[in-house]
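Exam review. A common question shows you a sequence with its structure tokens and asks you to describe the fold in words. Practice with the pair below. Do the first one on your own.
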Amino acid sequence: MNTSKFKYLIALTLLLSVISSCKEDEEPLPEPETPVVMFNFADPAAGATYSAGDTVAINGMISFENDMHGYEISIINTSHSDTVVFNKHEHMDGKMFHIHEHWVNNVMHHSNMQLKIEALTDHAGTRETKTINFHCHPM
């Protein structure tokens, strides 16, 4: 009987070690990745300088793996009380938006400017933002 009890004890020990080792090897499931809005803008170039009367072209693309619900672009004069000198809001649905706009430099003082591009990723107002800084010379 000692041999059968001993074999039973060894079998039970092996079973418990297999069960506990299986649980230790389990890794938590990875969290799903959050989709990222892609901004690809050729104009204006970061750090570009525009003379009086120059046209500042705004050319680029916004893309997202889910449907977006529009975009907003603004040019802000950060040297003078964050004055918005250009604003365009488009409400449309799609996974990709091509943007082709322009603004003519009419500032009265040397001004640091910021193009702010906001992708509206849902109807609740969630936004992803990209900024491009440039400089304008006065008229």
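Now try the second one, then compare your answer with the model answer below.
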Amino acid sequence: MSKVNLYLATGFEEVEALTVVDILRRANIDLDMVSVTGEKVVVGSHGIAVTADCLFEEASECDAIILPGGMPGTTNLKNHAGLTALIKEFDEKKKLLCAICAAPTVYGELGLLVGKKATCYPGKEAGLLGALPVREPVAVDDNFITSRGVGTAIEFGLAITARLKDQKTADQIAYAIVHTEQNR
């Protein structure tokens, strides 16, 4: 079974974070929301307070990292030395690294997306240093899954589910949440 940590910093985009948490937990994927702020309660970019499961220093080992976007959340994630060191370690081990909205720029600015397809919030492409930018809702390349923003958060969560579980589970969740043409 896969273990996933989704990292929260002050100013994170609430919909991007919580949509993914919801979808992965529906898939019975073990996921912790991890605060990098030193406090369990983290306030998002729209003033919504979310209680993380644990602090960065308490987080257990995981198989995948997810970064929600939002501002200044993305900047705050980039500035957390412990998180950026962990991300580099994950890339060296080819462990799964996921990010949405502005957050793929964290990976890009660390030089991890060179030669890889990646997507992000429109206008943030300059931060995808060396990547092959695409305008798809979700880009999957090697150990990276990236997505564009709030409007693609469901697809992002489903792509992570398909990678960590299987496509059948992702399809079942898409149907259950009325995200497929068959049940709209």
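Model answer, second protein: The chain is about 30% helix and 20% strand. The longest strand covers residues 3-8. Full marks require stating both points clearly.
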